[in-house]
Amino acid sequence: MKAQQFKRLGTLIILCQVCLLIFTFVATCKPKKENPTEITPGSIMDSIYCKNDKEQYYAVYIPSSYDDSESWPIIYFFEPAARAKLPLRLYKDLAEKYGLLLACSYNSRNGPIVINEKAYQNMSEDVNIRLKLDAKRQFTSGFSGGGRFSQLVAQNDSSITGVIAVAGPRGDGALFDAQTYATPYVGIVGNQDMNYLEHTRFQQTLDELGVKNELIIYHAAHQWPPKEIYDQAIQWHLGLLEYNIKKNQSTKLNSYMNLRTQYLDTTQAMSNVEKQKSYQAILKNFKDINNSIINEKILAIESEKKLDKAIKQEEKILQNEEEEQIALVKALNEFRSYFFRPGFDPDSGQYSLRWWKSEIGQISNKVSLDNSKGLSAARLIDFLRGQVHNQVQGAKAFNNVELILSMHELNLYLYPNSIWFLWNQAIYCAQYNQKDKAISYLKKAKKINDELLLKIQQYPMFNGLRDQYTYLYE
């Protein structure tokens, strides 16, 4: 069962990474400058070029009920790979349900803060020119690095009412000061996500500061959540706004409470310790409501045997995960340094490829999706994937061939049956004149899933490879 669970986890993560890289490629190709002038409710208006800067463009979803005689709430999205239409497609049904405008920039992506700040400034100014917005209901949201930036925007722009950060808590570096952060916040993270630990720590920080917040945990790795999960975040913010005016007479808050408690009662993605924290968060955030039902649910959890022990165990698991992350980063940096030492054999170092194969194997064997320790191991695998990706990108900047190939080999230790990583390693070997190795990786991929390999080879991002490296397609 454990092996099957890990296989499903790996498949989900690889599919997410394939989509990320494909859409990253697509995002670099600017669409035709159509720049629609007429507002078309009920549809995604794509490639809207900003009036004050024609290099800045975005997509916006306008609900069918839009009428400029009223003011409308909006969510500004930030997508790490500049896939502007992706969150709009995912959540357009919620936009219809709640009468929300959705906007996402094509210029904002993981990268320099100044570029993202410029993208947000131009997008928000242009949307305000074209559409009638409610100044008291403007939200920011983003995935991964986009989630971090959404909080930075909220810290610097007092017009932002709330934040929904997905799989990326806490603003970037020195530019974000958690101690002065005050905007109502909802975090969303998968229980197998590499940033899960960071989300839980950030929630503790916000609790200590007295900032109203909620953390929504669901069953997934590093990805945008389905609309059913995102719905909870929207209802939380809308409920909070009405609660601040009507207190316990808020119908929107009651709607959120019903949705949230139903989820907590039925989800298998959260432990009882996590559920207890969520119920307690409701009491902290909404003190004037009739909380008898919430208190009953907390008492039911607290009455269970060994709860105190479970709380201590889960905190210990998180501490161990934190320490393991630090150790893995240190080992990865040391491994990287081998390739910049003249005459040094990387295979002779403490953190050689043999060591990594053994270490990753030990972590992988602990992965299980039905207990806290197993989920922690799954998060470490996801964490290491992200760190290796960063190292590969850095190695490319130095054009260090052996480092690129060795770092990418770690991906195959993480996901040994990944057609995507086998195909990419074959490409790297071909590009660096290592034909025999390229063919070897290609044979492995064909043996595992020839049909999927053929499908991947047809992706537009690989156009041109057939003419340059014919043997990769034989």
TrEMBL record:
<dbReference type="InterPro" id="IPR029058">
    <property type="entry name" value="AB_hydrolase_fold"/>
</dbReference>
<protein>
    <recommendedName>
        <fullName>Alpha/beta hydrolase family protein</fullName>
    </recommendedName>
</protein>
<dbReference type="InterPro" id="IPR011990">
    <property type="entry name" value="TPR-like_helical_dom_sf"/>
</dbReference>
